[in-house]
Write a structure and sequence with these properties.
The structure holds two protein chains of two kinds.
Chain A (H helix, E strand, L loop, with lengths): L1 H27 L14 H10 L6 H13 L13 H36 L4 H13 L4 H15 L6 E2 L2 E2 L2 H27 L2 H8 L4 H13 L1 H5 L1 H18 L5 H10 L3 H29 L7
Antiparallel strand pairs in A: 1-2
Chain B lengths: L1 H10 L16 H6 L9 H11 L1 H23 L9 E2 L2 E2 L13 H8 L18 H37 L1 H16 L2 H19 L4 H5 L1 H30 L2 H8 L4 H37 L11 H7 L9 H28 L6
Antiparallel strand pairs in B: 1-2
Classes of the chains: A mainly alpha, B mainly alpha.
């Protein structure tokens, strides 16, 4: 077990390092740099700018000094507004974490419930309705879904305004971010629940006269949930993508919006900083979800 | 003689030896009953029969074919071009932009009143006065091409890498799979955004004048990114398949009778993993179309004026309250394509996946 954990942590560290290297060198491969189109062609100004963004030294030196600063939590400053990137990230990440956290929670609760219902009422009307909607939600791109929800529920019907007493309302963003994972989890739960319900120990439990609710809750659900745990990693990745889409559509001041803005503005340092931060976050979360999976399922062998 | 026989039989009460005297020859009618009535079936025939029985998958297949035929034929039939502003008698028309579906601009109306004939704007026009229907048609074409070629790239690289790794095994396999592990653990969404951004900024000048220039930097960088990152799950899948098939007794038997290596690969290993390969390739197409539309949303998709369904939907977000149809049309097309491809993929899996066959 410890061997497995050490191996996974090492892989995670290697991955983070590779991500940093790819991000750094890819961004520096853009020829001419960000100041080509600036009006100030005065050599002194250019030189000052290059020094400010640490671009005057050889690439190798820049890389190591960037990594050195990274360990101190310093991601440099934005090329557009001159703010410290680490500060922008820490300010905006709170919003993203809130939306993402709610979304993960909602997706898990709703998805597991719907999946269970669909499995227990197999081929009944409710099963067909659930499967129809989950298939539909899986075929609509996230930004289209978010835009449509915004248009229908916030602007046309006015049921869920985007702003409530000056504060952004989280209902629609969380909803539009959760629909895809809900659909996925529902289908996953349904199929694994059907597998489990056909198993011998369920028949044994039933024949012993265990209450039907207890059969599902204690025997079936616990085993049916396992595949859903494997989806935690991809779901976090999806949440990240989702936060970019949802925060842009609903103009929530989160990290996703900052990232999209930095791409639109060609803010090189900001793209680099955000990519590296998000990558480290994602690698870490995937590591945690993999380890959780191994811990909760005792049948899995450690390689 | 008969006595002897029964005596012998009694000697071994637990023996399984058959008392032949109790049996008679089968009559002709009985023989006929044993004739195989069903045609001999093969893996493929079985699979296709199962697939045809799947109504959802068949409907999806027909719908997809209809879409493909439409996007091949329609651009030749419709007298508008996806990148050109509509002109009346060679003159620019100021009022032709942002028309609602099936409406005419003032000049067009005038032209029709004077006896001229025009093709209707089935889906209206866009902000720059281009016919929206042809843009959606061409966008569908581009999106499908992107999805198809991206999956093809993933398939080719994944197949080569995975089969080499699976066949050779040993240290080569170990090293190759470590590389896959690392690429697999890279956060792909972030990397695809980053690489698309960088490629879009850098390759523009280098491809000028080549055939790639027509494709545009956006599409090219998408293909490059798919070739760099997305093949790993395919490679893993194929390696796993080959490793497990290699252990089978029929491969051992083929080797024992002296089949050449290429014959073993062609006749025994590939046919056994081809269904899994087809299924995952079919399911890769919708995910590539989704990725393209997400990149278009970020402004990293196909280059203007070329439309893709993703870029059309993304552009339509401006002025959504006044012209919601501009989002609806491409969005419905994306959903339709992704839905049909997913259902076809699921149908193929149900019909062909050896693990699910009973």
């Amino acid at each position: 077990m410890w061997q497995y954990i050490v191996k996974r942590v090492l892989l995670a560290i290697v991955t983070v390092f590779i991500v940093i290297a790819i991000t750094f060198f890819a961004m520096h491969a853009i020829k001419g740099g960000p100041f080509d189109k600036e009006k100030a062609s005065d050599p002194a100004v250019i030189k000052a700018l290059l020094e400010r963004y640490d671009l005057h030294r050889p690439l190798g030196q820049q890389f190591f000094s960037y990594i050195g600063k990274l360990f101190q939590g310093d991601l440099g400053i934005s090329m557009r507004n001159g703010r410290e990137i680490s500060r922008t990230i820490s300010d905006s990440f709170a919003v993203s974490a809130k939306v993402g956290g709610y979304s993960v929670l909602v997706s898990l609760v709703v998805g597991l419930t719907l999946g269970m219902i669909a499995a227990l009422r197999r081929n009944k009307l409710i099963d067909r309705v659930i499967i129809f909607f989950t298939t539909l939600f899986q075929s609509v791109p996230g930004f289209v879904m978010a835009t449509l929800l915004l248009l229908i529920f916030a602007q046309q019907l006015g049921w869920f305004p985007v702003y409530r007493q000056g504060n952004p309302s989280y209902f629609l963003p969380v909803l539009s971010m959760s629909l895809y994972p809900i659909a996925y989890i529902t289908r996953l739960t349904k199929s694994s629940m059907l597998d489990v319900l056909a198993d011998d120990y369920i028949r044994t439990a039933r024949s012993k006269g265990v209450h039907p609710v207890a059969v599902v809750a204690k025997h079936a659900l616990r085993n049916a949930v396992l595949p859903v745990v494997t989806y935690l990693g991809p779901m976090i990745a999806y949440t990240l993508t989702g936060s970019m889409v949802v925060e842009t559509v609903f103009t929530l001041p989160g990290l996703g919006l900052e990232f999209v803005k930095s791409i639109m503005n060609r803010d090189y340092t900001m793209i680099m900083g955000t990519t590296i931060f998000l990558a480290i976050f994602m690698v870490f979360m995937t590591l945690v979800s993999d380890l959780i999976y191994k811990v909760i399922d005792p049948r899995i062998k450690f390689e | 003689m008969k006595d002897d026989h029964s005596k012998e039989f009694k000697k071994h009460p637990l023996s399984l030896q058959i008392d032949l005297s109790k049996f008679t020859l089968a009559s002709d009618e009985e023989k006929r009953n044993l004739d195989v009535m069903r045609e001999p079936s093969s893996f493929w025939r079985d699979g296709f029969r199962n697939f045809r029985k799947n109504r959802m998958a068949m409907v999806s297949l027909i719908a997809l074919f209809a879409i493909i035929i439409a996007i091949v034929i329609l651009p030749a039939v419709i007298p508008y071009k996806y990148g050109e502003t509509i002109r009346i008698n060679g003159q620019r028309d100021q009022t032709v932009s942002n028309l609602y579906p099936m409406k005419w601009s003032e000049k067009e109306q005038e032209y029709i009143d004077n006896g001229g004939k025009l093709f209707p704007h089935i889906m209206g026009t866009d902000q720059l006065g281009r016919d929206y229907f042809i843009r959606v048609v061409v966008g569908t074409r581009i999106s499908l091409i992107v999805g198809f070629f991206a999956s093809l790239i993933v398939l080719v690289i994944g197949l080569l890498y995975g089969s080499v790794s699976g066949f050779l095994g040993g240290k080569v396999d170990l090293v190759m799979m470590r590389i896959v592990d690392v690429i697999y653990s890279l956060p792909d969404t972030l990397m695809i955004i980053l690489l698309s951004f960088v490629l879009k900024e850098t390759i523009g000048k280098q491809i000028q004048g080549t055939i790639f220039a027509r494709m545009g930097t956006g599409m090219l960088s998408m293909f490059i990114v798919f070739g760099l990152l997305y093949w790993v799950s395919m490679a893993r899948l194929i390696r796993g398949q080959i490793l497990s098939i290699k252990e089978n007794e029929f491969v051992l038997a083929a080797n024992a009778v002296g089949s050449s290596k290429s014959r073993v690969i062609r006749k025994h290993i590939l046919p056994n993993c081809i269904s899994v390969i087809i299924i995952s390739t079919a399911l890769q197409i919708p995910s590539a179309i989704f990725t393209e539309s997400f990149l278009s949303f970020l402004g990293l998709g196909v280059a203007v004026p070329m439309p893709s369904l993703g870029s059309l939907a993304s552009e339509a977000r401006e002025g959504i309250q006044i012209y919601p149809f501009k989002l609806i049309f491409p969005a419905v097309m994306i959903s339709l394509i992704v839905l049909t491809l997913n259902l076809i993929g699921d149908g193929l899996r149900d019909a062909f996946d050896p693990k699910l066959r009973k």
